[in-house]
## 1
Amino acid sequence: MDRSAISTAMQDYLKAIWDLTRAGEAAPTSAIAERLEVSAASVSGMLKRLAALELVVHEPYQGARLTVTGRRLALEMIRHHRLIELYLAEALGVPWDRVHEEAEKLEHVISEDLERRMAAHLGDPHFDPHGAPIPRMDGELPPMPGSRTLIEAEAGSPLRVTQVDDDPELLRYLDGHGIGLGTPLEVVTREPFGGPLVVRLGRGECRLGPEAAHRIRVAPHEPQESES
Amino acid sequence: MDRSAISTAMQDYLKAIWDLTRAGEAAPTSAIAERLEVSAASVSGMLKRLAALELVVHEPYQGARLTVTGRRLALEMIRHHRLIELYLAEALGVPWDRVHEEAEKLEHVISEDLERRMAAHLGDPHFDPHGAPIPRMDGELPPMPGSRTLIEAEAGSPLRVTQVDDDPELLRYLDGHGIGLGTPLEVVTREPFGGPLVVRLGRGECRLGPEAAHRIRVAPHEPQESES
DNA sequence: GACGATATTTAGGCACGACGAATTTCAGAA
DNA sequence: TTCTGAAATTCGTCGTGCCTAAATATCGTC
């Protein structure tokens, strides 16, 4: 089964399911529908088709999760997407707020060969500028030691921001607080049940809403290699 | 009317019609069908749709020719195609026998902005490596002084190869005769009705079949600027 | 066990583009 | 002029692909 055997719409569904599966839970129909801006009925229909192709396991009423093949295809598209974004920005100077939509179209049509050449041109990066991991050509994710969301992080140990969701609004918000990729910080207090979170930044402190906190990933703050 | 308003299939039809219109004649249905490997019935159907959009003028039983809008769109796709080919070869080292199929897919999805950036990266070339003119962004062709096919060329005056059809077989054939882009030559004799053509190359001579001769374009051999 | 939220099935629609077969038109030969 | 074969068109259909609203089914919870 290779990508040319499925439509671009199907590829988009697979990507969405991957994104919504993070916590080991199956992706709910409604979440997929919202993400792709289609009706729940459309999602049910598509899940049935994807299940017939053995790209997802569809437990009715329980959502969908990717099969090994589906996951491989989803990661292939995500790899394309992130490499294209990087390449356009780096090699052609396309502004960061425009690379996403361009990549959204290109990711479905580039050949594996071209992808390999773009990656090589970029020095085979493992992470994109937001810290998101770039899947490898074999369909696996690069290792992300100890990574978890800020929501899940324990208080009192030194951390480092390894990834931030690619959302302009969030990026602006964090920028205003002096937080970005690589920023060292430490959780001071965390209120339960979605209260704000206090983190120490250098010698200052700041409060973050829970919304933001679960869209930031952190890892223990020890020296580590290449995270582009 | 812009490209996003029409399907990629329509875009391919417009390109084919442009290619088949060279001599000022309308493109025959059968030629379009052969080129695109579809039935004549499909072409008739599509011509009707394109005519409704005022992209072609369809004189029934007499073939189709592009309207101003149709021509602009066709040239836009051709521009995309040639720039992408050049860019892939030059910036990413994609071998020449593979750029075509890659460009065929990419030409339909790149934005005008990206196209502009690729062109700039290449130094805004006016001709591709086969000497084919690259349409400008305003939808016009760059000037090609005195260009005509070798079949049409008068005997006895110094000429220069300005363009060769992009067909691997033809390229190999000409290579074997020492003919390429920029080669100076002169028609010695030409037999009427499709006989072979004798040309002088430097101090030697060679015979070319008429098939080849009308897929080579030449211009008077005087010094000229930038033809990449 | 009934309710609201969530999901699925059903039935249908629409855009797109292709095809074969039947028919019409054209242009050149007789 | 009339005939004829090639070319083109129309007609009816098919198939893919995706979407939707409405009706129905299921799940989890009180």
Note: Residues 160 and 207 of chain B are 17 Å apart (CA to CA).
## 2
Amino acid sequence: MSTPGSGAGESAGGVVPEPVELWSAFKRAHELVRTRVVADTAEAAGLSEPDLTILVNLDKAGGALRQSELAASLGWDRTRISHQLTRMGKRGLVARERGDGVTVTLTDAGRRTVTAVHPGLEAAVRRHFTDRLSAEEAEMLSSVLRRL
Amino acid sequence: MSTPGSGAGESAGGVVPEPVELWSAFKRAHELVRTRVVADTAEAAGLSEPDLTILVNLDKAGGALRQSELAASLGWDRTRISHQLTRMGKRGLVARERGDGVTVTLTDAGRRTVTAVHPGLEAAVRRHFTDRLSAEEAEMLSSVLRRL
DNA sequence: TCCCGGGAGTTGACATATCAACAAGCCTCT
DNA sequence: AGAGGCTTGTTGATATGTCAACTCCCGGGA
């Protein structure tokens, strides 16, 4: 299926990839970067990738978020968040309070953990991801990702 | 808000995003697109996303691959592939043969399934992913993803 | 008031992913 | 031949993700 069928709107020099191919490449890149970053960071701190994701997101938001907002900001399902927070709660990284909905808070231990891990995380993300992009690529990628 | 739109190459005033932020955006976009595409395709055919991933990859390779090559082309771990193929083997979608390593083959049922699902998959990927990218963006994304 | 419907969270059962240990084939060196 | 060491694949235990109920709360109508 490599032939376009109709040579509509082909621009010089660049080949517009097939949709499914591009999506496969996207998944593969995600997989590779994720694996490498996790190997370089979470592992060292006794954290899993989802742990780290939640901690970083809460930290970025100032330490507290409504559970539904946390879910939305990650693109996660509500049951996934619920299970994950339950596990993290048992380990003392986060706390939940009922109010108007449920508010999730970083505990002191959680804050200490994310503070300790963040420099290594940033270094790993640079090493395995952003350092491999030019400035223009990073900007374009950022705008594209926001749009999805 | 600087929206590049159709402007090419000009990056006046563009803000290069923070590494961790960009990575979070990447993960979120992956999550959202994945969820939507799966909801529109796999669900209908009784397939999970990993099932679909394997089937499409095998199909693209002509129907057979060494297990380690399959793993490498997806960025998957060997135990993940092994478990996944075991599950799919039980459902008759793929078969394994020992030889120089292990060769994974699409069964007739597997081939029929992927053929049946492919049009819907392509439509869903367009709808939720590539249709939201300009041609230049798709090209650049493709080159960036290959590099990772 | 009662009932209905939707949003938000939880729970338990099952599917998938990860980790550590193991097995088998295949080199090479001695 | 036989002892290491490397690559590939498997297995079982545990962690994480998904699906289908279910609860609880709230805000209309009739």
Note: The beta strands of chain B are 64-66, 94-99, 101-106.
